[in-house]
UniProtKB/TrEMBL annotation:
CDD domains assigned to the protein according to its UniProt record, in alphabetical order: OMP_decarboxylase_like (cd04725)
Record bears the keyword Plastid: no
Active site per database record: D58, K60, D63
Organism (species): Aestuariirhabdus litorea
UniProt-listed Pfam families: OMPdecase
InterPro entries named among the record's database cross-references: Aldolase_TIM (IPR013785), OMPdecase (IPR014732), OMPdecase_AS (IPR018089), OMPdecase_bac (IPR047596), OMPdeCOase_dom (IPR001754), RibuloseP-bd_barrel (IPR011060)
UniProt keyword DNA damage, yes or no: no
A biological-process GO annotation: 'de novo' pyrimidine nucleobase biosynthetic process
Highest taxon above the source species: Bacteria
The name this protein goes by in its record: Orotidine 5'-phosphate decarboxylase
Assembly and binders: Homodimer.
Primary enzyme class: lyase
C-alpha cells in the first residue's frame, strides 16, 4: 500500500469528492482535516469510505483527558483509519485516549500524536516560551507519546532518522511538510522532499497543496509516486 496521505484541505465536500473521484484508493489514503470536517461533517467520511478510501481524521484533539478521549471514541465510531491528538496535552490525556479505544470492541483507528507542527521553527517555539531546538521538543514529545502507548507521532521528516533510532521500527512516523523540489514552501518551515522523507524512514507522507493545487492533481500524485520508486 502506498505511504502517501493526500490532505483534502477543501472548503466543501463537492470539491473534496471531485478530487477523490480522480484518485485511486490503491495509490493513496486521504486525510480530512479541520476545514473540510467543520463544513462537511461525518457525511464526507462516509462518502470517502464508500469510494474505498482509508481516511486519517486529522482533528488534532487537545483538551482535558475526559473531553479528548470522548472525541477520540467518537472518531473511532466513524470508522476512520487514523486519528490524532496533540502530544502537548500530556501523558494523562494520551493514556485516556488510548484507554477508550482499548475498551471498544471492533476495529480501532491508529492513534497518533502531533509533536511540533511542521510550520514551526526555532523562533516560533521561543515566542511560546520554549527556548530550544524543534528537534529536542519533538524527541521529548515523541518519547512521551510512545510511553503513553500510542501508535506513532506526527513530526517533520527532518526528525525521522533520530526518532527511528530512539523509538524503533514499529512506531509510525507521519510526516507532513513534504515538498517536491519544484513546489512552493507556503507556510511550512521544516520541509523535506518525498524521496528524502522515505529514505530517512517516514512511515507516511502527508501531502496537500503540491497535489491539490497542481493543474492536474492525479498526475502530480503519480509523479510523486514515481519519484519514490
Ligand atoms: O505538523 C503538522 C501537522 C499537520 N499538518 C497538516 O498536513 C497538511 C499539509 O498540507 P500541505 O498543503 O502539504 O502543506 C495540512 O492539512 C496540515 O493541516 C501539517 O502540515 N503539519
Amino acid at each position: 500500500m502506498s505511504p502517501i496521505l493526500v490532505a483534502l484541505d477543501y472548503p466543501d465536500s463537492a470539491a473534496a469528492l471531485a478530487l477523490a473521484d480522480r484518485l485511486d484508493p490503491s495509490q493513496c489514503r486521504l486525510k480530512v482535516g479541520k476545514e473540510l470536517f467543520t463544513c462537511a461533517g461525518p457525511a464526507v467520511l462516509e462518502a470517502l469510505h464508500k469510494r474505498g478510501f482509508e481516511v486519517f481524521l486529522d482533528l488534532k484533539f487537545h483538551d482535558i483527558p475526559n473531553t479528548a478521549s470522548k472525541a477520540v471514541k467518537a472518531a473511532a465510531e466513524l470508522g476512520v483509519w487514523m486519528v490524532n491528538v496533540h502530544a502537548s496535552g500530556g501523558r494523562r490525556m494520551m493514556e485516556a485516549c488510548r484507554g477508550v479505544l482499548e475498551q471498544r470492541t471492533g476495529p480501532n483507528p491508529l492513534l497518533i500524536a502531533v509533536t511540533v507542527l511542521t510550520s514551526m521553527e526555532r523562533s516560533d517555539l521561543a515566542e511560546i516560551g520554549l527556548d530550544l531546538d524543534p528537534l529536542d521538543q519533538v524527541r521529548r514529545l515523541a518519547q512521551l507519546t510512545h510511553d503513553s502507548g500510542l501508535d506513532g507521532v506526527v513530526c517533520s521528516a527532518q526528525e525521522v532518522s533520530l526518532l527511528r533510532e530512539q523509538l524503533g521500527s514499529a512506531f509510525s512516523l507521519v510526516t507532513p511538510g513534504i515538498r517536491p523540489l519544484d513546489s512552493d514552501k507556503g507556510d511550512q518551515r521544516r520541509i523535506v522532499t518525498p524521496p528524502q522523507a522515505m529514505a530517512m524512514g517516514s512511515s507516511y507522507l502527508v501531502i496537500g497543496r503540491p497535489i491539490t493545487q497542481a493543474p492536474d492533481p492525479a498526475r502530480a500524485l503519480q509523479a510523486i509516486i514515481d519519484s519514490l520508486a
